[in-house]
């Protein structure tokens, strides 16, 4: 089979299409004929050498978390899926025995990790991580869901978002940001998103954003937010200086959930203001398989549809990552092997 592998850690030019042996499933495993695999900033960080998860000894490395396709083979007859089933993969990998696996939620697992290997014609996966796809949900749409939408949905749950709440989403045109804006609308809450692009601002409004601020500077954003009521919650996938911004604009008793570090690994903020205002900062990583199942159901019901900016053949995987680097895309970038 063919795979799009990372042969180095300097960027998109290090992506090459290689030949590998077809996978063979053991008990508890299945092989998927990959029809679509979306890419994420997580993959790009690996490709740029900015991730501790993958070292040079693992090159060439096949990334790709968000996989949808058709089961071609299973490792035993009593598996919960059979050849021909259409599925999307939950990329969570957990030990199944620690306290958090026993009590939940699963993404607190002490040995939590993520699946990699979807940028290929076929992928070897754990059977119990496969979620069935309704006929109304195509593979490209399904591949857009897991990382971005599981993350955003779980953040909204952690923020205890309720109908009518005002949710601030800085950087609302990234994968998690777009997902957050759509899901805030699905939950009956209201959103304020930011972008530096007028064209993307219009797209955000089309997706259900109630207010859009066209600015990237935290001070400008704070000034614009000051003209509105204070947000009940902040979904911060940027980190860095946007943590202080979130605390500055959030109401007393508000909740900020952080899931990323695109704007920086370190944040500084006023500690007295945090506790005197009874604000909360909550860390969150990915979501649960139950979250993914619920999201598939919502899409099947027509509640929302993930925007896909572009699709690429396997040979175009490097181009997809170059497009991600340029930050011009709006919506998911999906490789169709």
UniProtKB/TrEMBL annotation:
<dbReference type="InterPro" id="IPR013154">
    <property type="entry name" value="ADH-like_N"/>
</dbReference>
<dbReference type="Pfam" id="PF08240">
    <property type="entry name" value="ADH_N"/>
</dbReference>
<dbReference type="InterPro" id="IPR011032">
    <property type="entry name" value="GroES-like_sf"/>
</dbReference>
<dbReference type="InterPro" id="IPR051603">
    <property type="entry name" value="Zinc-ADH_QOR/CCCR"/>
</dbReference>
<feature type="domain" description="Enoyl reductase (ER)">
    <location>
        <begin position="11"/>
        <end position="335"/>
    </location>
</feature>
<dbReference type="GO" id="GO:0030554">
    <property type="term" value="F:adenyl nucleotide binding"/>
</dbReference>
<dbReference type="GO" id="GO:0044281">
    <property type="term" value="P:small molecule metabolic process"/>
</dbReference>
<dbReference type="InterPro" id="IPR036291">
    <property type="entry name" value="NAD(P)-bd_dom_sf"/>
</dbReference>
<protein>
    <submittedName>
        <fullName>Alcohol dehydrogenase catalytic domain-containing protein</fullName>
    </submittedName>
</protein>
<dbReference type="InterPro" id="IPR020843">
    <property type="entry name" value="ER"/>
</dbReference>
<dbReference type="InterPro" id="IPR013149">
    <property type="entry name" value="ADH-like_C"/>
</dbReference>
<dbReference type="GO" id="GO:0016616">
    <property type="term" value="F:oxidoreductase activity, acting on the CH-OH group of donors, NAD or NADP as acceptor"/>
</dbReference>
<keyword id="KW-0521">NADP</keyword>
<dbReference type="Pfam" id="PF00107">
    <property type="entry name" value="ADH_zinc_N"/>
</dbReference>
<dbReference type="GO" id="GO:0043168">
    <property type="term" value="F:anion binding"/>
</dbReference>
């Amino acid at each position: 089979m063919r795979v799009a592998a990372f042969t180095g850690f300097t960027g998109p030019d290090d992506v090459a299409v290689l030949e590998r042996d077809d996978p063979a499933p053991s008990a508890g495993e299945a092989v998927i004929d990959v029809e679509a695999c979306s890419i994420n900033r997580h993959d790009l960080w690996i490709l740029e050498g900015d991730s501790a998860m993958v070292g040079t000894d693992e090159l060439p490395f096949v990334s790709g978390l968000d996989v949808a396709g058709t089961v071609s083979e299973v490792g035993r007859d009593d598996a919960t899926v059979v050849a021909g089933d259409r599925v999307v993969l939950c990329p969570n990998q957990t030990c199944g025995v620690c306290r958090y696996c026993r009590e939940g939620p699963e993404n607190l697992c002490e040995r939590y990790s993520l699946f990699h290997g979807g940028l290929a014609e076929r992928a070897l996966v754990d059977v119990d991580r496969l979620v069935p796809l309704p006929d109304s949900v195509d593979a490209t749409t399904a591949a857009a869901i897991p990382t971005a939408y599981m993350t955003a949905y779980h953040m909204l749950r952690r923020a205890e978002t309720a109908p009518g709440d005002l949710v601030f989403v800085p950087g609302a045109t990234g994968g998690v940001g777009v997902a957050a804006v759509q899901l805030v609308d699905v939950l009956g809450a209201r959103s304020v998103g930011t972008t530096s692009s007028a064209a993307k601002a219009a797209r955000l409004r089309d997706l259900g954003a109630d207010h859009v601020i066209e600015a990237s500077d935290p001070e400008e954003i704070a000034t614009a937010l000051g003209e509105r009521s204070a947000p009940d919650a902040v979904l911060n996938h940027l980190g860095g200086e946007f943590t202080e911004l979130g605390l500055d604009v959030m109401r007393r008793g508000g909740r900020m959930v952080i899931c990323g570090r695109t704007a920086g690994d370190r944040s500084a903020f006023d500690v007295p203001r945090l506790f005197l205002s009874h604000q909360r900062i909550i860390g969150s990583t990915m979501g649960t398989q139950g979250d993914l199942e619920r999201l598939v159901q919502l899409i099947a019901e027509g509640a929302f549809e993930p925007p896909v900016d572009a699709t690429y053949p396997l040979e175009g995987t490097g181009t997809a990552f170059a497009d991600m680097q340029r930050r011009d895309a709006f919506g998911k970038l999906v490789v169709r092997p």
